[in-house]
Specification:
Two copies of one chain form a homodimer. In chain A, about 25% of the residues lie in helices and about 30% in strands. Chain A has about 650 residues and is of the alpha+beta class. In chain A, helix 5 packs parallel to helix 8 and helix 10 crosses helix 16. The two termini of chain A are about 55 Å apart.
Chain lengths: ~650, ~650
């Protein structure tokens, strides 16, 4: 992939690639989501696949291919429901505690599984167990508790209560009648259906075949999970999530793995997949301009070929839908959120239909968006949201990680749709949220504000006590605002009061109190062995950095507590890299570790995590602002108790944090 | 098991068995459900089992054994979100459509997977693909659409729009930060979690081991599904439904099969099961008095042994809970409804806890019972119900099939609890219904009344058109009442007007119209070759039956349309068997086929089904009473259309029915 970069070949390559990328953008005929579905499904058979017989032990979750008609009765005979004696009811008429009727015992005991041999004639009775076959001539059963055994002479019983005909008898076929349609095709098999099938004597059942779906990924950057990450490499998460989603919606994934951007190899793989499977799903790496060759390969596979390439959808625009022969071939966008959204919107309905499953209809819940949301005109937009129970109903927070994120889909509670013709949603607009992944349960505790590794220790302790906490990272200032709007219960903060230079205490007011957390050491991070910094104190290190024009810094975003510290350190200087402003300690450390910059400011535990060297500058107080009115909620109490717990404090200290008291 | 019945051995056996049964009843110390749970769980470890590593491909549905901490960042580097050029944002300040800025291109193209080699210095740009690594020196990306390539001379681009630092950059760790707790132990793995694990480079994950649960059944009558049904035999449905339910709640069933009531063999099997598995679940056949040896065998297995034998619960009284060493051993009652209820109440919580799953909390729905329900004082009673949407909320119909039924649990929508101290629920009482098997969806169409095999054909046609119909068999008269109370939309009826002798027309009124169905031929059923009936007409056959005192009839229940016909035929005669009054055509046919009686009256298709001979007596009209106000509901319309459909009529005719027009 990395060719030698001589000026000649690189220039030619560069120009060719840039031209191709520009052309490709024009190649797309972007159609609406509805039109894309129409074109795609017009070429597809959406009826269930054929049937296959499976044993009851493996039928769970499968879909019945045919109606099941009972071929036996249940019970298969008139059955006794109690332990007692089979009698003719008329013989017992008039029997009472004080005036029992005597019946001669027939010399037979009808245990379960025993075929009665003796007819119950008038004046006689036959001992019968629960589940036994009612013998010829009997029409009722008298319970053993209402009889007395007479052992002397001819065995007999005294019956002390009259029984009506039919008493304690379950008639043949009263549960399942031979000839009745017991189960309908299309039924999803649960343990309840398995019980009914077994009761009819069936050991296997015809179910709809599971559509076999080939899952492939392509991209030079992709690394198969489990292998070491190479520089510039990214783990292939699409292959895994798509394969698992195929299973969840009734398909059978065939995992072909990740392929480099090599047309010949990819074409061979796709042709093989088409031969072995009912459908092919390829996710296209994250590249588009510089390397998307998937649609070129797909366009060569056969007819009718590519039906849609480009959908007015965000995320998901570069989706490519094709049919080869009668088999769907789908190229999903490479970015994880785009891939899984388009999979659920366009591919899942086809898999479900072929698997014999009904369309998945998730019932929307009402919520309000707390902030104004912008949208692109002309593309239907799906925005992922986290749901939080507010003072007057659910609040839907947009999760703003973008379509390149793996976690945004996984951690969202649902999504909202913004129509292609809307350019924004005003704050406080009521929206329909389509839940993702089962019922959206509001958590016991909502924490919004700054994030810190040690916070995970506290949340873990809560989780072990059964409290589900949701942490939404919105920065210290965002947390304070959310807390004061009543959208969270606790806000983790580390903000310096510009007037006094102290941390956080200025944030408390009559309704919000400050609870002390821990201190973390802020300082300069740099690669081990960098002689410009090694062995120096903060002022010396800073002077060395500013003296070397090739020395690149990495800054932090405006509004971060760390940024306040950086600007104080720099005292007006603007060294190269100052404009590079990532939003987390981790991103700063990664940039330095990967030599994309040389120094930055962050907390000591993160420097350690990446094997960087560290010069301490100042301690930072990471505290918690709590709504006083919520202090006594069980989850809030548990949180505050956890902060005081010595075992938890020990774990937090081990991460490099300090407690003041 | 059928020993020779000589008077000597049978009498001894009989007396011994009856005594044992009486003793056993006293053996039970019946405790409350709460006390039973307390005694049982006091001896159990209810923490999750240990961990095992599974590949991501097999992790779906499993429970995470440990917290998962991310060991990599996602993205692992600062990443471009678009196709374009990596630049220093400051270089583009002031660029516009009409006054573009020119940047020299570095001789490098950053495709996905490519490690950048050249620093982006002031005044330069590097071509970069979506997903590419932001090179050292750059802090933003300008989209390809906002540039123009200058090919002449040194390659360069014109930039037509200013970009701020950070534009189109996803910072390292912004999605998943190294060191962050990504997933909590106890999380159930769905495709979403698999995507996150893969994104962190994990190819396997530690999950809680599934508790291995041995499933056995015992009873001389039990036949393994798939084998032919023997006389007096019953298919073992408990083994299948329990095994499937174990899988559904996170366990791994080990199916040991059905055992005859043989103490030595059963003890060997139980000891083997205890060695191989974490738990043992035995369902005890349907016998109790005459054959329940399970508790005797369990009492010999070890300590602490049997903790509970007898629970004040209906259904489920004979439940036996034991612990051997640290392993639970449960003997469920043999009757299917009792077995599955007690399984869910006492065994499922243990399996779930060991599997690391939270307790299953089903949210109850409110409904009203339409009829007075009696309950036994002193036993907590669970009553299965079908839910129907009535005029003012849900109505919970008791499904009255009894604990011996397999279908009552499988077909119920939920159950209600009647406290041990209540003896009845008045009609119209509001009750909490605990749903069974997912959300209780009210059907599109409710049909209550008489049942007929051919009705299945109509329902099947509706099902194919996407309408879900619920048929509740309550007899013709029950259907008319339910229809007039607004509890169903259609009532299948076959009732003779005693005044005119015509069928059904007298049931219509201004709010309810009669729609014609089909006619079925009622007649005398008897075994082929019975010379008393063969070749005769109905009057002759009847005379022959009445002339022979050893000839047993089987009657029908009072209120059945068929019973009206029988009484008319008998004209006051009461032959032997008259008191035997089962509630269905099937039960009548089975009784005759199994020689438990010799003749009865029923419909021709059922006689055929059992290989019986048939003498026609009179045609019977099976019609439908429909609420006029509901006629235009889509599902009702579809039902009425199906009745007119010639293909459907052909299928119904093939069952032996006739259409008048």
């Amino acid at each position: 992939m990395n060719e030698p970069h001589t000026p000649q070949n690189v220039k030619a390559d560069l120009v060719a690639r840039i031209r191709a990328a520009a052309r490709q953008e024009q190649f797309l005929e972007v159609v609406s989501a509805e039109e894309a579905t129409r074109r795609f499904q017009a070429h597809l058979d959406l009826t269930p696949l054929g049937a296959e017989d499976v044993t009851l032990g493996t039928a769970l979750g499968r879909v019945l291919a045919h109606d099941v008609v009972a071929e036996v009765d249940a019970p298969p005979f008139d059955r006794s429901n109690v332990d007692g004696f089979a009698v003719r009811g008329a013989d017992t008429f008039g029997a009472t505690e004080t005036g029992p009727t005597t019946l001669t015992l027939n010399l037979e005991v009808i245990a379960c599984g025993h075929v009665p041999a003796i007819e119950v004639r008038a004046g006689t009775a036959t001992a019968i167990a629960t589940g036994g076959v009612i013998p010829r001539g009997a029409d009722a059963v008298v319970m053993i508790e209402q009889t007395e055994l007479i052992e002397a002479g001819t065995p007999a019983i005294e019956v002390r209560r009259a029984v009506a005909p039919g008493q304690f008898v379950s008639y043949a076929g009263s549960d399942i009648a031979r000839g009745e349609t017991l189960l309908r095709r299309g039924t999803i098999v649960t343990s309840r259906e398995i019980g009914m099938l077994a009761a009819c004597g069936l050991s296997s059942v015809a179910v709809v075949k599971r559509p076999k779906v080939a899952v492939l990924s392509t991209g030079d950057e992709l690394i198969t999970p489990g292998k070491p990450l190479k520089p510039a490499g990214v783990y292939d998460s699409n292959g895994a999530i798509i394969a698992a989603a195929v299973t969840e919606i009734g398909g059978e994934p065939a995992v072909f793995g990740a392929f480099a951007d090599d047309e010949a190899a990819l074409e061979r793989a796709l042709r093989g997949a088409l031969e072995q499977c009912d459908m092919v799903v390829l996710s296209g790496g994250t590249s588009k301009g510089a390397g998307d060759l998937s649609h070129r390969v797909v366009s060569r596979l056969g007819t009718p070929g590519i039906l849609v390439h480009g959908v007015a959808l965000k995320p998901g625009k570069p989706l490519c839908l094709a049919v080869i022969g009668d088999k769907p071939v789908i190229v999903l966008p490479g970015f994880p959120t785009s891939a899984i959204f388009t999979f659920h919107a366009f591919v899942a309905p086809v898999i479900r239909a072929r698997a014999g499953l009904p369309a998945d209809v998730a019932e929307a819940v009402k919520a309000r968006v707390p902030v104004r949301m912008m949208s692109e005109l002309g593309r239907k937009e799906f925005a992922l949201v986290a749901l939080v129970r507010g003072e007057d109903g659910l609040v839907a927070f947009p999760t703003a990680k973008g379509s390149g994120s793996v976690t945004s889909f996984s951690q969202a509670d649902g999504f909202i749709e913004i129509a292609a013709l809307a350019s924004l949603l005003d704050a406080n607009t009521e929206v329909d949220v389509t839940p993702i992944g089962g019922a959206a349960n509001a958590p016991d505790l909502v924490i919004m504000g700054s994030h810190d590794i040690a916070l995970d220790v506290v949340i873990g302790a809560l989780s072990a006590r059964g409290f589900r906490a949701r942490v939404i990272s919105v920065g210290s200032q965002g947390g304070v605002s959310a807390l004061k709007r009543g959208q969270c219960y606790i806000a983790p903060v580390h903000l310096v009061d510009p007037e006094t230079g102290t941390y956080n205490t200025h944030l408390a007011d009559k309704d919000h109190e400050l609870v002390h957390g821990w201190q973390r050491s802020q300082g300069i991070m740099f690669r081990k062995g960098d002689v410009r910094f090694e062995g120096r104190n903060a002022q010396q290190a800073l002077a060395a950095a500013l003296a070397d024009p090739s020395c690149l810094m990495v800054n932090r975003n405006a509004g971060a507590g760390t940024r306040v510290l950086i600007d104080k350190l720099l005292n007006g200087a603007r060294p190269p890299g100052y404009a590079n402003q990532p939003k987390s300690h981790n991103a700063v450390a990664v940039s330095i570790a990967q030599k994309r910059s040389d120094w930055g400011v962050g907390i000591e535990p993160v420097a350690r995590l990446y094997g960087l060297d560290f010069i301490p500058v100042s301690p930072e107080h990471f505290d918690f602002l709590v709504a006083t009115a919520r202090r006594d909620l069980p989850a809030v109490k548990a949180f505050l108790e956890a902060l005081e717990d010595s075992a938890i404090r020990k774990d937090i200290t081990a991460l490099g944090m300090r407690f003041a008291d």
